[in-house]
Amino acid sequence: MGMNSSDFKIKKKLYKQTLRPMGIFQIKNLSNGKVYIGRAMDLNGKLNSEKFQLKNNMHVNKDLQSDFNVLGEEKFAFESLDYLTAREKPDYDYGHDLQTLEAMWLEKLQPFGERGYHVKKPA
After folding, report:
1. Is 121 part of any domain?
2. What is the pTM of this model?
3. How many of the other CB atoms lie within 10 Å of CB of 40?
4. Do residues 36 and 62 touch, judged by C-beta distance below 8 A?
5. Region of residue 70 (phi > 0: left; psi between -120 and 50: alpha; otherwise: beta)
6. 32-66 tens-digit pLDDT
7. CA angle (90 as vertex; 85, 96 as ends), nearest 5
8. DSSP secondary structure of 41-90
């Protein structure tokens, strides 16, 4: 038996309100150890998006894209590094928390120059 329009709308609304795993991810070049760090409200969705962009030669980070094109997907690991815990407040804005967590990982891993695909911003 199919779902009626009202049931579908309710399920869709509940799905949109469900928090996905959010946090910090890394794309690691297994050949040279260089990493690309990022943040996401939906880690699984973001990692899928990053893979899609790389496979289709559309990634914003040209150095990462170049290495991916030369080495192929099998030489890269797509991993979640850290997660944010959901708050009790349904309207809480996680943007600042994600930005802070990303800054901590950038500081910890220093993915600049030979170590990564990021460019260090002037102080």
Report:
1. no
2. 0.81
3. 21
4. no
5. alpha
6. 999 999 999 999 999 999 999 999 999 999 999 99
7. 55
8. SSHHHHHHHHHHHHHTT--S-HHHHHHHHHH-GGGEEEEEEEEPPPPS-T
Q: For residue 6, tell me if it sits in a domain.
A: no
Inside any domain, residue 55: yes
Contact call for residues 35 and 109 (beta carbons, < 8 A): yes
What is the C-alpha separation between 95 and 46, in angstroms, rounded?
A: 15
Q: Which two tokens stand for residue 70?
A: 């030369």
DSSP assignment, residue 117? S
23 within 8 A of 83, measured Cβ to Cβ: yes
Phi then psi dihedrals of residue 91, to 5 deg: -100, 15
Is residue 10, in this structure, part of any structural domain at all? no
* Total count of domains within the chain: 1
Tell me the residue range of the domain where 66 lies: 21-115
CATH number at residue 30: 3.40.1440.10
pLDDT digits (tens, 9 = 90+) for 11-33: 666 655 566 789 999 999 999 99
